[in-house]
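Lab meeting, item 3. Inverse folding demo.
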């Protein structure tokens, strides 16, 4: 059967003719209007998809009614119009539960996509309205109130799409959070988190990568979840790094002052030594109060002042005109210890001196660090902890 879809054209023709013929023949305008409205209602619930045969027959019967009016067969025209209305109503009744069910599914998908965009946080009002409308649609559907269920599902879909759009409009909040965590990680690495909190550091970096991919994929909920995990671990890594570095720098400051107190040159630098001791005391107090950055700065100042008193820079080099008693002692020992070379442990702000580096420098192989460690057991207790200013013996390799 040929399907008839251009209903608007048909209606215009029918009613234009009806107005012309109204004075000459009895035209079933009421019945034909009812049929036209019934077909329009069926179209709104997509009856062409869910009940196509009924819709074709309804349109065909309405056309027949028009032809019968043209032929001045009023009774037949009325009967065809009534049949068209009945078929359209039948199509509507068949389509309504199906379109309601499908629209509910569409709304559920839209709410899911809004959830992925983290609309529950970034567009909370509309997202909540969408969820409430969807719940109402499902309840109405269970009660077989399909028309109301359909309308509620349409509203849920509209609210969900609007919420998603609003959430995506705020996606830069995720980018800002990622940048903030990266800054924390940079600071944590600066203070040695790779040594003091490697697991926290790795977990934070992994979740930053997840968050960045989620940002690109517009999966904002996943991104915000990952960035929260990253932030937690980055903060913990920074805390551990600061605390341990502050403790290490305090130990280094104590060692530097002890070394200076044995120096003849430093004995004449009371002002510098007093200032060094004051900085050391301040570093201890700040460390106890959990003010780790300030404690590190105070310890470094104590080290600088202690070395200044000895005529040395923190890297162990001699200050011009400063005497450099430690360096002079080094030359004497070098004369006495023909089987050893001497190396003064240096202070570096970011990367600490270590036995592996010294072995690499002298032997070309960092794995030989134990030779240096065994030769300096009188000074070194922990091979991972050597202090700036220490003069270490580096055994010469036998040819």
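The presenter then showed the designed sequence:
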């Amino acid at each position: 059967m040929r399907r008839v879809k251009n209903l608007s054209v048909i209606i215009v023709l029918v009613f234009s003719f009806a107005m012309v013929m109204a004075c000459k023949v009895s035209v079933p305008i009421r019945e034909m209007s009812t049929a036209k409205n019934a077909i329009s209602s069926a179209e709104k619930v997509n009856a062409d998809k869910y009940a196509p045969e009924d819709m074709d027959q309804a349109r065909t019967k309405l056309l027949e009614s028009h032809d019968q009016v043209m032929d001045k067969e009023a009774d037949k025209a009325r009967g065809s119009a009534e049949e068209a209305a009945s078929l359209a109503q039948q199509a509507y009744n068949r389509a309504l539960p199906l379109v309601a069910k499908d629209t509910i599914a569409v709304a559920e998908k839209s709410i899911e996509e809004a959830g992925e965009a983290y609309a529950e946080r970034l567009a909370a009002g509309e997202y909540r309205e969408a969820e409430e409308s969807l719940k109402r649609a499902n309840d109405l559907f269970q009660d077989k109130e399909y028309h109301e269920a359909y309308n509620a599902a349409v509203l849920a879909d509209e609210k969900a799409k609007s919420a998603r759009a609003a959430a995506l409009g705020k996606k830069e909040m995720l980018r800002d959070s990622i940048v903030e965590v990266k800054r924390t990680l940079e600071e944590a690495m600066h203070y040695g988190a790779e040594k003091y909190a490697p697991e926290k550091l790795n977990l934070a970096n992994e979740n930053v990568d997840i968050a960045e991919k989620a940002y690109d994929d517009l999966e904002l909920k996943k991104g915000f979840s990952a960035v929260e995990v990253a932030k937690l671990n980055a903060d913990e890594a920074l805390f551990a790094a600061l605390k341990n570095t502050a403790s290490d720098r305090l130990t280094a400051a104590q060692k530097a002052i002890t070394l200076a107190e044995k120096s003849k040159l430093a004995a004449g630098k009371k002002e510098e030594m007093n200032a060094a001791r004051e900085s050391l005391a301040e570093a201890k107090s700040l460390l106890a109060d959990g003010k780790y950055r300030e404690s590190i700065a105070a310890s470094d100042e104590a080290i600088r002042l202690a070395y200044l008193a000895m005529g040395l820079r923190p890297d162990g080099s001699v200050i011009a005109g400063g005497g450099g008693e430690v360096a002079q002692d080094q030359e004497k020992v070098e004369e006495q210890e023909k089987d050893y070379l001497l190396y003064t442990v240096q202070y570096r702000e970011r990367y600490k001196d270590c036995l592996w580096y010294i072995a690499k420098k002298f032997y070309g192989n960092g794995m030989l660090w134990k030779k240096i460690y065994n030769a300096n057991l009188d000074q070194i207790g922990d091979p991972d902890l050597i202090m700036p200013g220490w003069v270490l013996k580096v055994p010469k390799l036998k040819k």
